[in-house]
Amino acid sequence: MTEEIIIAGFGGQGVLSMGKILAYSGVMQNKEVSWMPSYGPEMRGGTANVTVIISDERISSPILNSFDTAIILNQQSLDKFEKAVKPGGLLIYDPNGITRLPLRKDINIYSIAAADEAGKLGFSKIFNMIVLGGFLKLKPLVAPEYIHKGLEKSLPARHHKLIPENEKAIEIGKTLIQGVQVLN
């Protein structure tokens, strides 16, 4: 099993930390892992993406041109990465800020209203964990206990008190993910 993932959105949406938590969780489960962030000099508010590869075998290169899964959190990222999803692959997007919906019919498309849910809960910082939960429902690459260990490893000790909230957000995300039918 090898899963090649791109997570992309604006800086400040938790794109890089979502990838880091997923990567650490894979490491804790004794998987081969690659985590390669990419962001512009503007950081918060600019575009950011991270490539995560989780595999049972050695990873030959962290540089990818196509992905099994794209997790998309803004329109610029959808425009850039929709075409990079392998046929039969998975595209997950949050509709908040998306003006043009995905158009491909040869991939599996899912929507998760994570920004709206995080807003309703009054805690915008769990947005990325809601998205991660939706992804893990569709592709349970790592077991929940390893997600917990990944959160412990990637969050500073002063934020460990927030781990239960993050785990709750992951569970919420599993209930929010919805398949999308492309019409045209």
Which helices and strands appear, and what pairs or packs with what?
Layout: E1 2-10, H1 15-28, E2 32-39, E3 47-55, E4 67-72, H2 75-81, E5 85-93, E6 108-111, H3 114-121, H4 127-138, H5 144-154, H6 163-176, E7 178-179
N/C terminus separation: 33 Å
Assembly state (oligomeric): single chain
User: What is the 3D form?
Assistant: globular
Helix content: 25-40%
Major sheet attributes: 7 strands, mixed
Round the Cα radius of gyration to an integer and report it.
15 Å
Write down the overall mean pLDDT. Answer: 92
- Provide the structure class: alpha/beta
- How many domains is the backbone divided into? 1
Helix count, DSSP H or I runs of 4 or more residues: 6
- The assigned CATH architecture is 3-Layer(aba) Sandwich
SSE arrangement, N to C: EHEEEHEEHHHHE
CATH class assignment: Alpha Beta
Q: State the CATH superfamily name.
A: Pyruvate-ferredoxin oxidoreductase, PFOR, domain III
Widest beta sheet: strand line-up: 2-3-1-4-5-6-7
How many strands? 7
As for the CATH topology, it is: Pyruvate-ferredoxin Oxidoreductase, domain 3
The parts where pLDDT drops under 50 for at least 5 residues are none
How would you characterize this protein structure?
- With 184 residues, the protein is α/β, with parallel strands linked by helices.
- The protein has a single domain, classed as Pyruvate-ferredoxin Oxidoreductase, domain 3 (3-Layer(aba) Sandwich).
- It has helices at residues 15-28, 75-81, 114-121, 127-138, 144-154, 163-176, and strands spanning 2-10, 32-39, 47-55, 67-72, 85-93, 108-111, 178-179.
- It has a seven-stranded mixed β-sheet with strand order 2-3-1-4-5-6-7, sandwiched between helices.
